[in-house]
TrEMBL record:
Segments of skewed composition (Polar residues): 1-14
Taxonomic path: Bacteria, Pseudomonadati, Myxococcota, Myxococcia, Myxococcales
Region described as Disordered: 1-23
Protein name stated in the entry: DUF418 domain-containing protein
Transmembrane regions: 40-63, 83-104, 124-157, 163-182, 262-283, 303-324, 344-363, 369-393
Domain DUF418: 255-411
Length: 423
């Protein structure tokens, strides 16, 4: 599954009038208050999310077997590169950034007035609504509902001490890793329907829009939603990790220079651990193909796989933050900031465009593209989204879906055009 973008930084501003009688009202942060580094990291992570969604969810039915190694040499190379450098890392980084965004929002909003927690809860509830529409009417690979549920559960922890948040993240991490082996969870999440993949390939590839909606509704309710008991703790652990990282001060611009050593070691150890684990997994499972692997070994693999994704995601993030300390690199990487600022719009646009490309009511190309060609399509579309995002933000303050989300959250239409704000 893919992941969704972190909320942009918000604040609570006072309305005009006498200070004693002012009413606090919700409003976006002032221009220049954004943390551009987070936009850049998020924009780069968006490419990884698109790449894996194209490889494993858009071009073939979502509830299939996307991990089967292709036979053609070029396809195998592309698949291997995606597994080594992308799979799980980009989605994990998005979840961590989402937690960072929750902490930033609540911190800034609370400093301006009461009602910050309710405003954030309201935002997450509207995210649930977006997610349900996305899951039932557009694409069943939705992650927005899981994000919103995890975010709501995370709310009571955000104002706790840093070590408490870290500890809670660890608890939910272990829930996700070991919970899958509890019988009642496995019964919910491991349902196998004979012939489902073949039926999904036929329905999604050849049917009308409303036939696909009916088929997808059954998938979402019977196969995806039961998995929330397994998926939400995973997202929650990563979000709380992001909250704890922000509270620790590592990401704060004014004190980041004090944490350069921590960032360097995070980059080195995180990426080395992830690479070493992948090599071990490849040798153990793909070269030797043990006929019978004991459950304890699978448990260790699950533990290390999840830990590796988190370590690598943190490593990638640390590398980017270290590079952004240098003016030349900041100038080069700054082209990704518009993609990050419009990540919510870009994520939903990817679903709309590629379901149209692959599904029967559109071009009907499901199952007809290999991994190599699909990767090229993804690169081209990502570049196009970067150009569109850059041009759009020259004229507007937010992406269209970001604007709709903000307006719903604040209960009033937000100014969209830049001219309307600057005047």
């Amino acid at each position: 599954m893919t992941t969704t973008p972190v909320p942009e930084n918000w604040t609570i501003e006072s309305s005009d009038g006498d200070s004693a009688a002012r009413e606090t009202r919700a409003a976006p942060v002032a221009k220049g208050s954004r943390i551009e580094d987070m936009d850049i990291v998020r924009g780069i992570a968006l490419f990884g999310v698109l790449t894996m969604n194209l490889a494993m969810a858009f071009r073939i039915p979502f509830f299939g077997n996307p991990w089967e190694m292709p036979k053609a040499l070029l396809e195998r190379i592309v698949f291997r590169l995606e597994l080594i450098f992308v799979a799980g890392r980009a989605m994990t980084l998005f979840s961590i950034l989402f937690g960072v965004g929750l902490a930033i929002f609540l911190e800034r909003a609370s400093a301006r007035g009461p009602g910050a927690m309710w405003l954030l809860a309201r935002r997450l509830l509207f995210l649930t609504a977006f997610g349900l529409v996305h899951a039932f009417l557009i694409w069943n690979g939705d992650i927005l509902v899981s994000y919103s549920l995890a975010g709501l559960i995370a709310l009571p922890f955000i104002r706790r001490r840093t070590w408490v948040v870290f500890a809670a993240a660890g608890v939910f991490f272990l829930w996700h890793v070991f919970g899958h082996y509890w019988p009642w969870i496995r019964e919910l999440t491991d349902r196998k329907v004979p012939g489902h993949f073949e039926e999904a390939l036929r329905v999604y590839g050849t049917s009308s829009y409303w036939d696909i909606v009916r088929f997808r509704a059954n998938e979402v309710t019977s196969m995806e939603m039961p998995g929330y008991v397994f998926l939400v703790p995973d997202e929650l652990a990563k979000m709380l990790l992001g909250v704890a990282i922000w509270k620790s001060g590592v990401l704060r611009l004014e004190v980041r220079d004090k944490h350069q050593r921590a960032l360097r070691w995070t980059a080195i150890l995180g990426i080395l651990y992830g690479t070493a684990f992948y090599i071990y997994r490849w040798i153990h499972f793909e070269l030797y193909h043990p006929p019978r692997t004991p459950p304890s070994t699978f448990m260790q693999i699950a533990l290390h796989w999840n830990a590796m994704n988190i370590a690598c995601a943190l490593g990638y993030g640390a590398v980017l933050l270290l590079l952004l300390r240098h003016t030349a690199w900041r100038r080069r990487l700054g082209i990704f900031a518009p993609l990050g600022r419009m990540a919510f719009t870009n994520y939903l646009t990817q679903s709309i465009v590629f379901t149209t490309v692959f599904y029967g009511y559109g071009f009907g190309l499901l199952g007809k593209f290999g991994l190599a060609f699909t990767a090229l399509v993804g690169i081209a579309f990502y570049i196009l989204q970067g150009i569109v995002s850059t041009v759009w933000l020259r004229h507007f303050r937010f992406g269209p879906f970001e604007w709709a989300w903000r307006s719903l959250t604040y209960g009033q239409l937000q100014p969209l055009r830049r001219a309307a704000v600057e005047v």
